[in-house]
Amino acid sequence: MGTPAGLNAAEVDALSKLDSLDSTKAGELRETVSNSYFERNGFAPLDGKCGAGNCFDGVYIKGNQVIINEVKPLQANGSIKLSGGNEGTGLKTQMSDEWIVSRVRALRATKDPVKVQLADQIMAAKDAGKLTTVVSGVNSNGMVIVKVKP
Q1: Non-local CB neighbours of 69 within 8 Å, separated by 6+ positions
Q2: Which domain holds residue 57?
Q3: Beta strands 131-139 and 65-73: pairing type?
Q4: Phi-psi category of residue 25: left, alpha or beta, with phi > 0 → left and psi -120 to 50 → alpha
Q5: Confidence (pTM)
Q6: CA distance 116 to 1
Q7: What is the pLDDT of residues 113-147, one digit of tens each?
Q8: CA 117 from centroid of its chain's CA atoms
Q9: What is the DSSP letter of 57?
Q10: Which end of the chain has the smaller Cβ count within 10 Å, N or C?
Q11: How many structural domains is the chain composed of?
Q12: Which CATH number is 85's domain given?
């Protein structure tokens, strides 16, 4: 069971338009609202994107705690679906340990010094037990955050 996120009036208003958007715009809005929520709660957002592969929807740091957030549509029945493994790409199930490590490798492969530093921060947090993985399920009624077990 997830924890309902306390959204502000602007976030709730933005989500009220969600069902009228195409899937790309809806995905962008879900990520924007989720990012806004984490920022309002004291987490510094970092750029976890790595081109077409996307890597992470959100990476946040607060103190020595690192959060990786995957944003998904929240279904009417409360379910959230992560992407399963893909034999064609070699990617494992989203948010699994193997998937996270593969996405960290993709960040490093960009050779962008900022993204390489982020990859190092994620792995250091993982090694220190300070990495939390969550999925934010978002629909026009709000957002639910589910912690993913390691």
Answers
A1: 34, 38, 56, 57, 58, 59, 60, 133, 134, 135, 136
A2: 3-148
A3: parallel
A4: alpha
A5: 0.89
A6: 34
A7: 999 999 999 999 999 999 999 999 999 999 999 99
A8: 18
A9: S
A10: N
A11: 1
A12: 3.40.1350.10
